[in-house]
Amino acid sequence: MVCIRCKMVVKDELSKLGLHYTVVDLGEADILEAITPDQLKEFRAALLRSGLELMDDKKSVLIQRIKNVIIDLVHYSEEPLVVNFSVYLSQKLEYDYTYLANLFSEVQGTTIEKYFIAHKIEKVKELLVYNELNLTEIAYLLHYSSVAHLSAQFKKVTGLTPSHFKFLKHKRRTMLENVGKSAG
Fold it and tell me: What string of DSSP letters covers 129-183?
């Protein structure tokens, strides 16, 4: 929901400034006319008031684009990758993967792979909490080679097995249901 809110804020602020756009996506906006220095200053201030930041340095923009590709792939796409993730990212952003990986690590202090895995694990947690899919279905949806691979990666990142995570969520819910009940 935050992503949608961010895009709405950017569109609204551009409209208030009388600027027309073709695309407003996470981390980028294609604006049809030239922006005056005063408009840029006003736009930057409006974004800051909404808790957003204008990125105009090329490396920051590229880092955000890498993050956007990963977020879209993990959270909004159900299509399986037909190529390795590194190839997909290179093709999508039109940069050499080694350059992207080095830049991302340098700026973010973590690797693209760890960032990608962290998002996949967050998606697994979300799906486990919703309790609509079993682990086999989740593994398939998130393109894991097997349930064992998903489980091993989940445990490495969270310290818990997916079933223990689900049990703790269920236990927490049960305890909340008992809140307010008298002991006797």
Answer: HHT-S-HHHHHHHTT-S-HHHHHHHHHHHHSS-HHHHHHHHHHHHHHHHTTT---
Count helices and strands in the chain by DSSP H and E runs:
9, 2
Please return the burial class of 31, using the count of CB atoms within 10 Å of its CB with bins 0-12, 13-18 and 19+. middle
The residues of the chain scoring below 70 in pLDDT are 1-2, 26-27, 55-56, 170-184
Q: How far apart are CA 179 and CA 3, in angstroms?
A: 34
pLDDT (tens digit per residue) in 36-49:
889 889 998 988 88
- What does the alpha-carbon distance between residue 19 and residue 54 come to, in Å, rounded to a whole number? 16
Domains of the chain plus CATH, in order, are 1-54 (no CATH), 115-177 (1.10.10.60)
**Cβ atoms 24, 52 nearer than 8 A:** no
Q: How far is Cα 149 from Cα 13, in angstroms, rounded to an integer?
A: 45
Cβ neighbours of residue 95 under 8 Å, at least 6 residues apart? 62
DSSP-derived secondary structure letter, 30: E
Beta bridge partners of residue 44, listed in sequence order: none
Judge if pTM exceeds 0.70.
no
In angstroms, rounded to a whole number, what is the distance separating the alpha carbons of residues 55 and 146?
39
